[in-house]
Amino acid sequence: MSSQQVKKVVLAYSGGLDTSVILKWLQEEYRCEVVTFTADLGQGEDIEPAREKAKLLGIKDIFIEDLREEFVKDYVFPMFRANALYEGLYLLGTSIARPLIAKRQIEIAREVGADAVSHGATGKGNDQVRFELGYYALQPDIKVIAPWREWDLASRTKLIAYAEANQIPVPKDKRGEAPFSVDANLLHISAEGKVLEDPALPPEEYVFSRTVSPEDAPDTAEHINIQFKSGDPVAINGKDMSPATLLTELNRLGGKHGIGRLDLVENRFVGMKSRGIYETPGGTVLLAARRAVESLTLDRGAAHLKDELMPRYAELVYNGFWFAPEREMLQAAIDNCQHMVNGEVTLKLYKGNIIIVGRSSPNSLYSEDLVTFEEGATDYDHHDAHGFIRLNALRLRVNEMARRKMKP
After folding, report:
1. 127 tagged catalytic
2. CATH top-level class of 182-298+337-360
């Protein structure tokens, strides 16, 4: 794609060194107008400085938006209805943020008449795939500029030299080599690369920022109660909360008790393995609570089918196919059973552990009368079990009789 083909580009802009260099590089290389978009997804830092930095670099159209409520309501909560875990462990904190950023970039591109979008994801990671699959799914003819796949600024030294040559402010803490790379939003914070690249070495305590070490967590357990409506959490300890407010509070509670740390070697979509350190305190508590209320309210067939669909759903989210028809089909199937998932769960948080101590639901399928060892259960006849077992054993008996006939 030649630079003459691009007139205006919407850049996903954090205000940091990398995207500030990208901003200037786009102006220089493509000779195009740049529009910046900065999203507040709950990363825990002030994003307003991005406005001043964009102004300093000559940007006229600057979009800075608080998307925390939309992020949790329309992306995090639907994903959690699937109880999604990539490779059985990862709660997809980075993955689920990318579709919303991509969607808003495309909306802004339409609004300002831009013919291209750009991102700061590197050429080895998953995020380049996630962003660009989102772009193309929503705007098939959009032009995508991925600077890390085009330029030769392959080191921090070169980035800083470029910044200094173009009067881009470089904070003192950015001049040295960063010990690891960080991504954060309201659902999680991740760290990877540099000092964390050897999976045989444990991460130092300074890597963690959202959770205390379980050893340093309070010596007294804390009980909390989470209320659910149609599969989504709506209140903590009887207090109704918006989606973003609720997740923020769960982050506080989980982090306080050392919950939600994960050291994972995962399979990236682009083909390599990578080691990441994740902190997802609120999400970890939420997953445990959701499964507890579903254990009461979902029929066995629906619950087991959900668990079978979950790895496929999680892989789609991880790989960047949020807007793909198969993810939407799975979402519809999952959401169809969530109208029964109402009730509340009481949990005990203690030194990195989540212990379910109680659950109840007006839609509970649990029957004390059926399950009791005492006399009762008028709907259950013990004698029925004889035929049930004989019928299920039939193929096993036939198989064994045939096997015996084959013996010499």
Report:
1. yes
2. alpha beta
